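Let us work through a complete example step by step.
Step 1: write down the sequence.
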Amino acid sequence: MPSYPPRDMSESERRRRAAARARRKRQVVRNRLIFCAVCLVLIAAVGFGVFKLAGVLTDGKENSGTSGQSTSQTTSSSGSSSTSSSEPSSEPASEPASSGETVIPASDGDWRLTLVNNNVALPEDWQITTKVAEASTQRELADEAADAYMQMKQAAAVDGVELLLCSGYRTVEYQQNLFDQEKQKWLDQGMSEEEAYDKAKTVVAVPGYSEHNSGLAADIVTPDHQTLDSAFANTDAAKWLFEHAPEYGFILRYPEDKQAITGIIYEPWHYRYVGVENAKAITESGKCLEEYLDGLSA
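Step 2: predict the structure and record it as tokens.
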């Protein structure tokens, strides 16, 4: 067969072929990018599914543990009273101590001993009526707790100590708003949903898991020191409360030496109403509320 000399390509032919090769390369790159994007979407979907499943399992364990709790209080719904929307968050801005296993002790039939903490939610059927306990701040507490606080405030005044209720009852809806604001702050800093949630609950209690939702928790300060910090413990008001609060049915809820049990940092301003007899018994025992109730259920 005769051989022929190679045909010289014209300039336009070379350009056409070069353009075709460039298009093929772009197509390959585009296909690879599409493939990578699809893989990332699938991985994210699987990860989200695992995360949601873990959340469902966790909620199931917590709900199954708290479903047996109830209160003997049968007054009108807490929805009949609400706090001012200007109420500041009184949850600590510091990292709390890590909490242990969920503690679900018996309350011995006394609604005033109902436990609410990071692991135990307020019972769904919780019902109270509230009233103003501090005229200057318009803060409210459950009726019985409000009466006790006002008596305690008067007794302190006789001793030359001025008490000030800066935070009391909060609706779960109000607590949700506080929590969402705190969570959004961390989301804005680049955290994931899970990271922002975990960080937010170290500053503001998860809605429904705050004692303030019960109407039995009182953040008490004094006009000369209204900052919620450990320095409050050095004030005359804090010293008076530490000595006399049990006489009016209140206990220091988060003692300094019980952080590993309560899961909350030392809060010398945070008192919990449990009734006079209970308050004296708990104080004399040297136990925090979790330990005391665990003893009742033993």
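Step 3: interpret the result. Residues 140 and 293 are 26 Å apart (CA to CA).
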